[in-house]
C-alpha cells in the first residue's frame, strides 16, 4: 500500500525557517519524480515544486523560488522541503505526492502538514 | 503561467440531476509527446484531494462511471451524470503540461 506521511509543520514567525519531511512507502521511491503541493486555508491548490529521482533537476513556482529548496534522500525514502524567509502567504497545508499524478501516473496524497506563518 | 479558469465557481445541484463544470486554459495543453495533461481532482470536505480523471477523459480506478471528462486543446468539461450526496466537495481542473503546473480556482458542488 502506498503511503505518504508529511511532518514538520507548525507555527513560525515571519522571516523564519521550517523543514518539512515526507516519508514514502509502498512504491519504489527512488524511481519517481516527487512534488510538493500546498493549499492555503479555505483556498485552492498550488503546485509548489518538483524534483527528479536523481536530484539533477528541480523546479519551483515563482512565489517560492529562492526561498524554498526541495530535496530527497532515496536511501531513506524521504522527501523534504526547506522553507526559508517565510511569509504570511506561505501559510498552508503542504502535501507531498508523486509528480506523475499530474501526467497520468498513480495518484496518492498524504494527509498534509499545516504550516502557519504568524507573529 | 497557464491560467486555468473554471466555471461556475459554485454549483448547487439536486440529487440525481446532472452537473457540468467547465475549465478553460490560457494556452493549449497539448504536450510535445502528443498527450494532453488535463486532470480533474475532487476534494471532499476535510479530506485531501484525489484525482478523478487524467489526460482529459481517463477515469481513475474506483471512480464511479457517472463521472466523465471531455475536451481538447483549451476547453475541457467534467460531467457528473447523476449527482449523489457523496459528490459534495470542491472540484479542480489541473494542467500538467506547462511548468508551473497550475490548478483552476475550484468549483464547489453542493446539494440544493
Automatic annotation (TrEMBL), chain B:
PROSITE patterns to which the protein is assigned, alphabetical: IG_LIKE (PS50835)
Keywords (A to Z) from UniProt: Adaptive immunity, Immunity, Immunoglobulin, Immunoglobulin domain
Gene Ontology BP term (one): adaptive immune response
Endoplasmic reticulum recorded as keyword: no
Cellular component, GO annotation: extracellular region; immunoglobulin complex; plasma membrane
Domain Ig-like as annotated: residue spans: 1-93
Gene3D superfamilies on file: Immunoglobulins (2.60.40.10)
Residue intervals passing through the bilayer: none
Name of the featured protein: IGH + IGL c18_light_IGKV2-30_IGKJ1
Organism: Homo sapiens
Amino acid at each position: 500500500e502506498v503511503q505518504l506521511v508529511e511532518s514538520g509543520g507548525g507555527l513560525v514567525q515571519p522571516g523564519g525557517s521550517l523543514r518539512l519531511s515526507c516519508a514514502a512507502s509502498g512504491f519504489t521511491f527512488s524511481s519517481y519524480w516527487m512534488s510538493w503541493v500546498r493549499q492555503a486555508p479555505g483556498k485552492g491548490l498550488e503546485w509548489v515544486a518538483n524534483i527528479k529521482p536523481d536530484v539533477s533537476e528541480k523546479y519551483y513556482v515563482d512565489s517560492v523560488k529562492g526561498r524554498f529548496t526541495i530535496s530527497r534522500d532515496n536511501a531513506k525514502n524521504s522527501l523534504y522541503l526547506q522553507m526559508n524567509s517565510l511569509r504570511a502567504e506561505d501559510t498552508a497545508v503542504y502535501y507531498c505526492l508523486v509528480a506523475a499524478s499530474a501526467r497520468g501516473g498513480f495518484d496518492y496524497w498524504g494527509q498534509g502538514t499545516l504550516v502557519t506563518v504568524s507573529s | 503561467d497557464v491560467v486555468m479558469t473554471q466555471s461556475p465557481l459554485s454549483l448547487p445541484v439536486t440529487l440525481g440531476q446532472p452537473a457540468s463544470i467547465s475549465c478553460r486554459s490560457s494556452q493549449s495543453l497539448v504536450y510535445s509527446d502528443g498527450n494532453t495533461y488535463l486532470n480533474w481532482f475532487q476534494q471532499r470536505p476535510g479530506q485531501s484531494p484525489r484525482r478523478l480523471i487524467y489526460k482529459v477523459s481517463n477515469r481513475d480506478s474506483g471512480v464511479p462511471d457517472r463521472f466523465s471528462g471531455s475536451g481538447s486543446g483549451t476547453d475541457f468539461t467534467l460531467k457528473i451524470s447523476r449527482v449523489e450526496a457523496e459528490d459534495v466537495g470542491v472540484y479542480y481542473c489541473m494542467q500538467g503540461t506547462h511548468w508551473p503546473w497550475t490548478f483552476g480556482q475550484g468549483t464547489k458542488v453542493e446539494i440544493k
